[in-house]
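Q: I'm writing a short methods note and want an example of a predicted protein-small molecule complex. Could you take the sequence and the SMILES for 2-acetamido-2-deoxy-beta-D-glucopyranose and return the bound structure as C-alpha cells? Please keep the output block clean; save any remarks for afterwards.
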Amino acid sequence: MSPKFSMVGLVLVALSLTSAQNDSDFLYDYFPEDFEWGFATASYQIEGAWNVDGKGQNIWDEFTHRNVSPIVDGSSGDVACDSYNKYLEDVELLKNTGVNFYRFSLSWSRLLPDGTNRTVNQRGIDYYNKLINALIANGIEPMVTLYHWDLPLALQGVGGWTNETVVQHFENYARLAYSYFGDRVKQWITLNEPFVVCQLGHGDGVHAPGHTSPVEPYLCAHNILKSHASAYRLYERDFKESQGGQVGVTLDSGWYEPEDPNNPDHVEAAERAVLFKHGWYAFPIFFGDYPPVMRQLIDQKSEAEGLQESRLPEFDNYWSQQLNGSYDFLGLNHYTTELVVPENRTDPGYSGDQNTRTYQSAEWPESASSWLKVVPWGFRKIMNWIKNTYGNPTLYVTENGFSDTDAEGVNDQGRVDYYRDYTNNMLKAIKLDGCNIKKYTAWSLIDNFEWARGYTERFGAHFVDFNDPARMRTPKRSQGYLKQLFADNGFPPPKQ
Ligand SMILES: *[C@@H]1O[C@H](CO)[C@@H](O)[C@H](O)[C@H]1NC(C)=O
Ligand SMILES: *[C@@H]1O[C@H](CO)[C@@H](O)[C@H](O)[C@H]1NC(C)=O
Ligand SMILES: *[C@@H]1O[C@H](CO)[C@@H](O)[C@H](O)[C@H]1NC(C)=O
Ligand SMILES: *[C@@H]1O[C@H](CO)[C@@H](O)[C@H](O)[C@H]1NC(C)=O
Ligand SMILES: *[C@@H]1O[C@H](CO)[C@@H](O)[C@H](O)[C@H]1NC(C)=O
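A: Understood, no commentary inside the block.
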C-alpha cells in the first residue's frame, strides 16, 4: 500500500464520520451566476440514418443486427429518434427549455466511413455543420463529444480499441473534427465513459463489440487513454492558440459507500472501488499513471494465476508525460451509488481484481434500470471525493438522469424528484463544500435507444413515440421542472 493510498483512506474515514447521509435539509439558494445548464445526447442513440448519405457502419450497427439479438427488445438505432432528419426539432426543444449549451456526439463513421482519414464523407460534415449553425443561431453553445461508443466497424476488424494503431486513427479523426468545426465548437470531450467502453464492451460483453475477457478491458483502457492524450496534445499544439477552446474527457463514476463506515476495512474497500472505477482513467490523466492499488493488486493476481505478464499494462515515460495533465476540465457522468464490503476474490478480471463486493440497498428508491437506484447524497460525495483526490479541478457534470418506462408517459414525477434532489446536492457541493463545478448536463433531451436495453428504458425530458414514423416529441413534466430550474438558476425559497 502506497503512502498516498493510506492518506486518501484516512481523509475518507474523516469524511464518512462527519457528513451525515441526510438530504432532508433541502438547500434554498442559487448557483453561481456563470453556472451553465444543458442537455446531452449521443449520435447512435438518436440519429438513426444508419446507412444513408455515405455513412460507414459502426460496431453498434453490427451488434444490433446480429441474428441472435443482444438487445433486450431486439431493437436497434437504425431509426432511433430520427434526429438526422429532425435535428431542427431538437434545437427547438433545447431553446424552449432555455439551455445554455447542448452536448452531442459526432458519429465517427458518418465523417470517416472506414475510420481512417483516407476518405472524408462531405455529407457527414454538412449534417454537423447544419446542427452546429442552428444551435448557435439560437444562442445555444455546442459541446461536442468525439467518441460516444460508435467505433467504425472497419477499425474493429483489426482489433478496435485493443489494437494500438487505433491511437493514430483517433488522433486523425480528432484533427478532422477540430479543423472542420473548431471555429464554432469551443468545448470538446474526447471520450464518453471509457470505463463502459472497455468493461461492458470487452469484459462483460453486454455492449458492442460483445467480447468477454479478463485481459481486454485493461488493454482497451490503455489505448483509449493514449488516444485521449493524443487528441488533447494535438489541440494544445495546433489549435488552441487560434481557436481558444477547451478539451477534456468524460468519466463515469457512481459513489462507493462503505457498508459499515466505522469499519476501517470497509472504508478501505470502498476507496479501492472508487479508485478502480474512476481512478483507473483519471489517475493517468491527473498523475501520469494508474492508481498504486491497481498496480499492486493486478500484478499480484496476474502472477498468482501464472500469467507471463500483468493484465495491467505499463506506460513508458513518453506516454506518462503525454497523459499527465491532459485536461482543461473533467467531465463527470453520475447516476447512482453502491455499498461496498471487502472480499478476497480469485476470479480473474476487473471485478475480482478489486477484492470487493458491491450491492445496492433494498431501501433505495428504484428506477426502470436495475442498476440505477436513487441516492442523491452519493452525488455530493463523489464530487467531494474528486475535489479532494485531484486538487479541485474544474468539473462539468456531463450526464445525470433517471429512467422510467412507457407507463409513466409524460407524467414523470420520479424524474422530477430525481433532478430536484440530485441538483440540490450539487448545490450543496458547490456552496457548502467548495467544489469547483461549472456546468450541469441532464441526460437526456429526448427518450432514445438505451443500448442493450433498447427502447424499454426512457431517460428523456421529452417523450418520443417510437411507434410513430414521425417520432413525435412531447415535453414531460420534468421538462417544465428543468426549464424553471434553469431559469431560476437555483431554488428560490418557498413563499411564506
Ligand atoms: C435529517 O435532517 C433533518 C433536518 O436537519 C432532521 O430533522 C432529521 O431528524 C434528520 N434525519 C435523520 C435520519 O438524521
Ligand atoms: C491522415 O493522417 C496522417 C497522419 O497520420 C497525415 O499525415 C495525413 O496528412 C492525413 N491525411 C489527410 C487527408 O488528412
Ligand atoms: C492492428 O492494426 C493494424 C492496421 O491498423 C493491422 O495491420 C494489425 O494486423 C492489427 N493487429 C492485430 C493484432 O490485429
Ligand atoms: C505530473 O505533473 C506534475 C505537475 O507538473 C508533476 O509534479 C509530476 O511529477 C508529474 N508526474 C509524472 C509521473 O511525471
Ligand atoms: C483476506 O485475506 C487476508 C490475508 O489472508 C486476511 O487477513 C483478511 O482477513 C481477508 N479478508 C477477508 C474480507 O476475508
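A: Remarks, as requested: Confidence is low (pLDDT under 50) at residues 1-20. The longest strand covers residues 141-147.
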